[in-house]
Design a protein that fits this description.
elongated, about 190 residues, 8 helices, 2 domains, about 10% strand, mainly alpha
């Protein structure tokens, strides 16, 4: 009987983390942190994956790790699936290393705006010294628009100028409703 897999209950979260990662490769320490396992268990996991050596480190490509996780997920007996792979290990990867991204970038959110980005209703201000700083800030803004578009629009989209035909009471009511909406969203 194959040994139980300690990280199997977290398989879904591990697969999500790998799928959402921008990194291209993982080393042994990355696998330890990702799977919540020790060094020896990470080395055993490396035996199930095609690896690339960079200096003294063995790395596994994100695609290969994702493929292994999908195989474990789809297998009727995950422990037997891993044992079968260890019996016939993939060895060294034949793919040439062209890109190496070793760290994940934090995703920018409306609650964690870069310091050089200021948003007001209908207005965006970016202060930067270098083109790289500008690019990073605009990439963060793109992440916000992709992930939190509705909230971004609610907070910062310019409100149409009032129509002169609308009564002052109705304008006051609309303003109060917007304020209440802002208060309600701040509470959540």
């Amino acid at each position: 009987m194959a040994r139980p897999i300690s990280w199997l209950p977290r398989l879904h979260a591990i697969r999500q983390s790998v799928a959402n990662s921008v990194r291209s490769h993982y080393d042994r320490h990355d696998l330890e942190n990702l799977f919540g396992i020790g060094g020896r268990a990470a080395q055993e996991l490396f035996k199930c994956l095609p690896t690339t050596q960079v200096g003294q480190s063995l790395l596994v490509a994100k695609e290969d790790l994702s493929e292994l996780l999908d195989g474990v997920h789809d297998a009727p007996d995950p422990a037997a699936h891993l044992a079968a792979i260890k019996e016939n290990p993939p060895g060294k990867s034949r793919k040439k290393l062209r890109l190496l991204i070793r760290k994940d970038q934090a995703v920018t959110t409306l609650d964690s705006l870069p310091e050089n980005l200021r948003l007001e209703r209908g207005q965006l201000t970016v202060n930067f010294r270098t083109s790289e700083e500008l690019a990073v800030t605009l990439y963060g803004l793109a992440q916000i628009l992709e992930e939190e578009l509705e909230e971004f629009e609610r907070r910062y989209q310019k409100i149409e100028e009032p129509d002169d035909s609308i009564s002052p009471e109705k304008l006051d009511l609309q303003r109060l409703l917007r304020e209440l909406d802002d208060i309600e969203h701040k509470r959540t």
